[in-house]
């Protein structure tokens, strides 16, 4: 996404919006070093102080990270994700506990609010996830498993819950990758019973299925 020259009013807010959009659109991925202050100043047609204030504001939210003498890097894709990263860090157990809070209720809501189209999409994603695992594509598996769980939450049709979950996606994908190094355990977690419960509109069973595998993961993480 090319950056556009800003208008003079509300310059800092405009620069913040454009930098945030570059991150969320994937122009600057997680871990990527963004252009330097002079480069951004030239692209946006604003002073370096304006760019500096905008970068400082996004660093405060956790989206960017300023590394003195090295540059500014993308740390998260949204303010929610940045806040969660500051809260959870890289602690696997903390990420799993937060996932449990969101995914159990997400599964319960999905069972009550899902549409036929939602169930069909879940089946497609589940098959993709299982194929990635069966064929040993572990990086793809981590992404497809995380996407599957996000769609479960989306099937509940609660916008705020989905937004909270989306903010966790980087940490969720990392947690999947961290817990899929045990082939025997990953083989047991197929999620077909979860989708069956959602399709049957059995909210209690859907919540139980979501809680069950996460409780297993949490127990294993606590043994580390």
UniProtKB/TrEMBL annotation:
UniProt keyword Transcription regulation, yes or no: yes
What is this protein identified as?
Answer: FadR/GntR family transcriptional regulator
Segment forming the signal sequence = none
Q: Name one Pfam family in it.
A: FCD
Which keywords fit this entry according to its UniProt record? DNA-binding, Transcription, Transcription regulation
* Superkingdom of the source species: Bacteria
The HTH gntR-type domain is annotated at 9-77
């Amino acid at each position: 996404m090319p950056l556009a020259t800003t208008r003079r009013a509300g310059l800092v807010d405009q620069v913040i919006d454009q930098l945030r959009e570059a991150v969320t659109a994937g122009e600057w991925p997680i871990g990527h070093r963004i252009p330097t202050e002079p480069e951004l100043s030239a692209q946006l047609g604003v002073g370096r102080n304006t760019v500096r204030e905008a970068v400082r504001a996004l660093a405060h939210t956790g989206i960017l990270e300023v590394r003195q003498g090295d540059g500014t890097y993308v740390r998260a894709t949204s303010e929610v994700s940045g806040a969660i990263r500051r809260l959870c860090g890289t602690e696997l157990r903390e990420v799993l506990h937060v996932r449990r809070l969101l995914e159990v209720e997400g599964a319960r809501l999905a069972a009550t609010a899902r549409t036929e189209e939602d169930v069909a999409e879940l089946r497609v994603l589940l098959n993709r996830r299982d194929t990635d695992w069966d064929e040993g594509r572990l990086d793809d598996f981590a992404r497809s498993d995380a996407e599957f769980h996000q769609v479960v939450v989306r099937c509940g049709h609660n916008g705020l819950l989905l937004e909270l979950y989306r903010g966790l996606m980087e940490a969720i994908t990392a947690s999947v990758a961290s817990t899929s190094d045990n082939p025997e355990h990953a083989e047991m977690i197929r999620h077909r019973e979860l989708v069956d419960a959602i399709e049957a509109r059995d909210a209690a069973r859907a919540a139980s299925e979501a809680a069950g595998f996460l409780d297993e993961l949490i127990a294993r993480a606590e043994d580390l």
